[in-house]
Each structure stands twice: as C-alpha cells, then as structure tokens.
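Chapter review. Work through the record for ANTAR domain-containing protein before attempting the end-of-chapter questions.
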Amino acid sequence: MDGSASFDEALAAGRDMLDRADDIEAVLSLMRSRGYPMIPCIKAVRELLSVDLGEAKRLVHHSRTFADERPAHEAFHGSLLALVEKTDHQRAVQQGNERPQIG
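Structure tokens for ANTAR domain-containing protein:
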C-alpha cells in the first residue's frame, strides 16, 4: 500500500471484480491482501457501491475479511462510549443537573 496511485489501482481492480459478478467480500479480501486496513476499505466500498458512510462502515465491519478485527474494534467502541457517558455524567453533576452516584 503506497499512496493514492495504488489505491486507485486497487479500486479499479475492485470495479473489475464487481463487473465480473464477484461480491464485495472478494474486493475487501483483495484490498486487505494488498495491505489496506479498514478505513481505506470503507472508502472503497462507498465509491464502488455508492452507499453512504454508515452503510459502508457496516459492510466492512461485519465482513468475513475483517472478522478477526471485529472484537477489538467493538471493545474500543464500548470503552469510548463508557468514557463519554462518564464524562457527560460528571459534567451534569458539576452543573448541578444531577446528583452524584454513590458507590
């Protein structure tokens, strides 16, 4: 994976694969084998399938190609949500909008 020229080549290969009736999973597998992580693959899915960002993320996240990364990404996402909720709660307590939790 080296620069946008290589990404454009991978995208062209993905278009060819889809034109030959391969599915997006095959395209993701090709891109990962070329060293592309999830984020460039999400960008490729958006371009190749003309879907919005949320759908592209869902397709890549739930793909077989990236199944090995899913548990770590979900754990990170859960930790991030917990941190946001804790911060929101602390802010509400500081502003006097909520009582502190005991325990």
